[in-house]
Structure formats: C-alpha cells, structure tokens
Amino acid sequence: MPSRFDLTGRRVVVTGASSGIGEAVARGFAEAGARVGGISLDGGAPVDGIFVAGDTGDPEALESLAERADREWGGIDVWVNNAARLMVRPAVDTSDEDWHGLLRANLHGYFYGCRAAARRMVAAGSGSIVNVTSATRIQAVPGLVAYTAAKGAIEALTKTLALELAPHGVTVNAVAPGATDTQMNAHAYTAEVRRRYEERIPLGRIATADDVAGTVLFLATDAARYVTGHELVVDGGLTVNGAVGHAED
Asked: Taking the CB of residue 180, how many other CB atoms lie within 10 A of it?
C-alpha cells in the first residue's frame, strides 16, 4: 500500500523554477518520483520535464504552460506559485512603475497561476495548489512595502480560493518562508543583516531553500489532504521570538 507521503507519478508545475526555492521544490518533487514542469524568466530546467521561459505576470504564458502540461501529462495534480522578485525601497520613493512592476510577478502572477491550475483541477475533481508567501507578512520589514503587500494579498487569495475550490476536491495552502538564502536575497543580505538574523532566529541560522521545499512537498501529499486554507510559517521561530532579555525575578 502506497505511503500517504508518496508523490510518485504526481504531475507538478512550479513557477520560478530555475533558482532559489522554486528550484529546490522542483528538484524535491523530481527526487520523489513526480513529473515536473515549470516556468521562469530564463527557462532554466533544474530537472527533466516541461520547462519554459516566460513571465508569470503574463496570463497567456501561464495558460499556455498549463495547457501543455494538461495535454502531455493528461492533467495537473500540483501547482506551486513561487516566482517573485525583491525590491527594497521606502514607500515615499516607490514610483507607480515600481509598484505595478513588483505586483505584476509577485501578486498578479499568483492569481494567473491559481486560475490556470484551478480550471483544470476543478474539471478533474482533485488537486493541490501551494502559494509561497513570506513571513514579512507577519513581521513587517521597512523598505519592503510593495513586496509585503503582495505577500499579504496572496495569503488572502489562498484562503478565499480554499473555500471556493474545496467542494471540487482541491486544496489551497500557503508556505511562508522566513529569512532564506536564495539568489533573490543575495544583495539585500549583507554581513550585518545575516548577523542580526542569526541572533534573532531561535534555530540560529538562515534557512536554505531545501528547508522550505520540504514543507511545500508535504502539502502536496495525501498526508495533507485534509489541510486547506492555511499558511505554514517556515522561519526557524523568527516570528514568534519576542525575547528582549528581560531580567529574571
């Protein structure tokens, strides 16, 4: 009898699949025996599968990928929305172009991905959608106004879609990474930023992309089939750490 954690043969699409968390997720699914496809700006293929170059802010790019996966695989079991970019800029210095450009991939692309996946999963009567949000939605970081606004909106999108799609056998959940070592964060994570994170994170280190990928894979297994509408925070305890060094009685 197959394990509830078995992902063999699952048909999986990952956005932002060529680097960072997306790459780790794609590799994780492939190692677990799933068929994997994805989209990224450079079209990089971390594993064998259906990988294309494209902008997730373009709804046609995601519809085209979903249609191809559906045609070649006969359906889509799991869709992971992960593609994003980081912009560190105070709100007063954020132009209209900055704001809309950031939301194009970080929010609109998630909706387009959810819609493309849901259309096919509803028809099939099953499926799992996982959206990568961020712990910045819980513990705000100055300078990340557009990024954090997008991540908060994705959390709300996740909950609403979970209710809409539950009657069709489709689960929708989110994974909120805390500080994570990825190419996207390479410039922002100076030596001082890293030192502060290591001091603030109870587990004592910044996450790797694999630390986050494991949670994404779990939500796609049958072991999580009764979990929907939730955001799992993967941050090493950062957002629950209120320690300021109170003196003992």
From this structure: 23
What's the rounded mean pLDDT across residues 125-136? 98
Gyration radius of the chain's alpha carbons: 18
Report how far apart, in Å, the C-alpha atoms of 174 and of each of 77, 139, 159, 195, 200 are.
16, 16, 9, 28, 23
CB 174 within 8 A of CB 158: yes
Query: Is 226 among the residues known to form the active site?
Result: no
In whole angstroms, what separates CA 61 from the centre of its chain? 18
* CA neighbor of 38 nearest in space, from 4, 75, 11: 11
Residue bearing tokens 């170059």? 53
Q: What angle do CA 51, 14, 209 make, to 5 degrees?
A: 115
The per-residue DSSP string of 93-112 comes to G--HHHHHHHHIIIIIHHHH
pLDDT at 192: 96
Element (H, E) at 58: none
CA atoms within 13 A on the CB side of 19: 13
Residue 87 near residue 95 (C-beta atoms within 8 A) = no
User: Annotated catalytic residue: which of 110, 147, 189, 226?
Assistant: 147
**Distance of alpha carbon 148 from alpha carbon 19, whole angstroms:** 21
Q: How far apart are CA 11 and CA 69, in angstroms?
A: 8
Task: Please say if the pLDDT value at position 246 is more than 90.
Answer: no
The answer to whether 204 and 185 are in contact (CB under 8 A) is: no
Q: Which fold has domain 11-233?
A: Rossmann fold (3.40.50)
Q: Which two tokens stand for residue 73?
A: 């695989």
Going by pLDDT thresholds of 50, 70 and 90, the confidence category of residue 244 is confident
